[in-house]
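#struct-help
A.M.: can someone run this one for me? Single chain, 519 residues.
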Amino acid sequence: MGSPHTTDEDSVPEIAPCITRKRPLVNGQPQPQTRRRALRQLLSVRLCAAVLISCQVSIAFAQSEAGRFLAAVPGESALSASDETHSVADVQTQLLELQKQIDALKHAKAVEMPSVPPTAAMAKPEPPKYPTVRLTGFFQADAAWFHQDANNRLTIGNGVPADGDIQDGADFRRARLAAVGKVWDNVNYMLEMDFAFPGRPSFMDVWMDIDNAIGSNSLRIGQFRQPIGMDGQTGVKDMTFLERGLPFAFLPFRQIGAMTYGHTQDEQITWAFSGFRYPADQFGGNVGDNGGYGMAARVTGLLVDSCDDSRLVHVGVGYSFLNPANDAVQYRNQPEFFVGENGAGVVPPGVPSQVPVFVDTGAIPTDNINLFNAELAMSSGSFHAQSEIFYATVQQKGGPRVTYPGAYAQAGYILTGETRAYNRKAGVFGRIKPKRSVGSECGPGAWEVAGRWSYLDLSDSKSLGTGPGGRLNNITGGLNWYLNPYTKLQLNYIHAFLDNPTFGNSDADVVAMRAQIDF
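D.P.: on it. Structure tokens below:
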């Protein structure tokens, strides 16, 4: 997305110099198009000769007629016979010279253009060889510092302040390797593993894609992100903040199943529909014959589109139905940052080994869940924004239906003038690419400032869950430095407002940093 710049094409000289190009050869012989060009030149010379001969003959005839006419007019001198003979001789001399030039040209072309045998034609390109494979991956290294008021430590520790004292720390949030490629011209695959997620290593995106499997729609089979929500569909490498917004807690996210998806020819509308087993573990497994199924659907559209990402308005809706195999669901979340340590003997005794959850429903006995979602996003030049609202309604086993809402709104502005890309086939924002990267391009990279409000309410009093519930509001400010398209440094400040039904209101602050590289 570089800015317009002046090139040599912006200043064209009045008279372009003549350039002599060597004729391309095939097996040491001229190509057929070169022979055709030479034949056209030869025909042009013959045509010019014919025209010249015609003109000379016409002139000689006119001179002859004029001489006879003047001879018949008294007082006027006529052309002498010797003059007529001289004119005809001139024409014959010029004809002989032209014939010599034509003969010489024919001889030269014959030398330059030997016949090209049919076997010298361009060989047919070899078909691609399958399967293909390409290694890709990325890592995110995080560090964070926490500050809590006294009531927040008391709340998080459930009445024991020491148990709620969140520790500063550093960790690899994600460290992934993946193999991607094709096994045939219409069958793609991805096999991605994460070595930083708890339960490491863990399956991430492990799927196969069949192009145009159902009409123009593709078919995906395996474990993948389920199609609901703009924030959830945005890749973690392209996120504006360190973590997704608080309502991300509602999403079924990665499950094992099948999905069909597609878009209109002009890429103004996208759709996706999936069916899957629910819930799956970190390796994609799920067992149980009492339910254990789910579905998700998402449709997006562009109301305004400048076609160059400089100005657009995006809308979308999503829905998911879940019937958990274990007849239970649990919603919970931290203040949009996570760091922890799973190794034994490293964490000091008596303190949390990771960032604890701030709001938690506990396990809710569940028949089924309906999840509704609406999206709104826009981009104008270097400014971009997006927002979503979620409603999760849970039909409890042996109890009434409960409803949990969540929402967020975020915006970013790129100080160095770049425009954030938009993926029209997926209906999500993409990454920011600097106009001039740090390094050999001698540029500053791209700098971005961003802000977000995020909300999650798990406090329905009719819930049969074992957790305290609670409401959580987050305010986040961010500064991002994109050194090049594949390297990013991020700084987030997060202020969390917690409303707990037992301990009341409390506050916490987080300062967090991330270094990310992908390939």
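A.M.: thanks! The mean pLDDT is 85.
D.P.: also worth noting: The first helix runs from residue 32 to 71.
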